[in-house]
Design goal:
The protein is mainly α. The chain is built from ten helices and no strands. It has helices spanning 3-31, 41-44, 64-76, 84-89, 93-104, 117-128, 139-143, 161-173, 183-190, 193-204. 33% of the residues are buried. It binds heme C (2 copies). One heme C binds next to helix 7, helix 8 and helix 9.
Length: 208
């Protein structure tokens, strides 16, 4: 086969491969897996919008490697959730990859957020500047401009406020301890309940 045709054939295989993995991701989302992972759609939706009322996190548009790390952490115990740990245990490595890549490609419509202007202003200050008098760094110094995420630092813009507040609470009480060198534990321990609510509301009001 001439080299040009070979390259074309390989490129087509790549395209078919990606397509097959998208289909596998969608099948897991809608049907779950034989090993017992529940269909993700029930809680995270088909486009990964999650649910504000029940603290089901938004997954759509988030970094696939970050989502994968969270599922692996749920599997190995560094992060524990009575809901998600059994789901993660029902996913093979290949399934884990397919389903996280599927969600990272989605662009869900997120609900509008209403919050007190004073809370939003405080939240904006914490996110952009931090509260240096109390050693609280700006969230965006790690989570990237506008909280859109960068590398191992996940996107926090456009996430549900209740979920954000709940994760900060879990770092405080030790329920979540999967952050490299305790970066989020140190931040969470310094935030008061009011500051947590304020920054969570502000982040939820942003677009990812
Ligand atoms: C019964 C509801 C439910 C189902 C079904 C479910 N999840 Fe979750 N998921 C949750 C909840 C609740 C959390 C937050 C857990 C916590 O507080 O640590 C979560 C968290 C996650 C996270 C971490 C997100 C982040 O931003 O850190 C990922 C990734 C995830 N789920 C993927 C999946 C996948 C993939 C499936 C399907 C195979 C699935 N979930 C099925 C409820 C569910
Ligand atoms: C020094 C760096 C750093 C700073 C500053 C920081 N974070 Fe984080 N944050 C992290 C890292 C690292 C993770 C990912 C932990 C992991 O791998 O599970 C994280 C994860 C999170 C998560 C979990 C996201 C998810 O979907 O699971 C939330 C919510 C969060 N941070 C909120 C905040 C808020 C709010 C602030 C500001 C008050 C903040 N962070 C400041 C490093 C930081």
């Amino acid at each position: 086969m001439p080299l040009r045709n070979l390259a074309l054939a390989l490129a087509m295989c790549g395209a078919v491969g990606a397509h097959a993995s998208d289909e596998q991701g969608l099948a897991i989302v809608t049907q779950g897996t034989a090993a017992g992972a529940t269909a993700c759609i029930a809680c995270h939706g088909i486009d990964g919008a999650g649910g504000a009322a029940a603290n089901f996190p938004r997954l759509g548009g988030m970094d696939a490697a970050y989502l994968r790390k969270q599922l692996l952490d749920n599997k190995n115990g560094a992060r524990h959730s009575p809901v998600m740990t059994p789901v993660a245990q029902g996913l093979s490595d290949a399934e884990l990859k397919a389903v996280t890549e599927y969600y990272s490609k989605q662009r869900p419509q997120m609900p509008a957020v209403s919050a007190e202007p004073a809370a939003l202003a405080l939240g904006e200050r914490i996110a952009n500047q931090g509260l240096w008098a109390r050693d609280i760094p700006a969230c965006f110094s790690c989570h990237g401009p506008e909280g859109r995420g960068i590398g191992a630092f996940p996107a926090i813009a456009g996430q549900h406020a209740g979920y954000i507040a709940q994760q900060i609470e879990q770092w405080k009480n030790g329920g979540r301890h999967n952050d490299a060198v305790g970066l989020m534990k140190a931040v969470s321990d310094r935030l008061t309940a009011d500051e947590t609510q304020a920054v969570a509301a502000y982040l939820a009001s942003l677009k990812l």
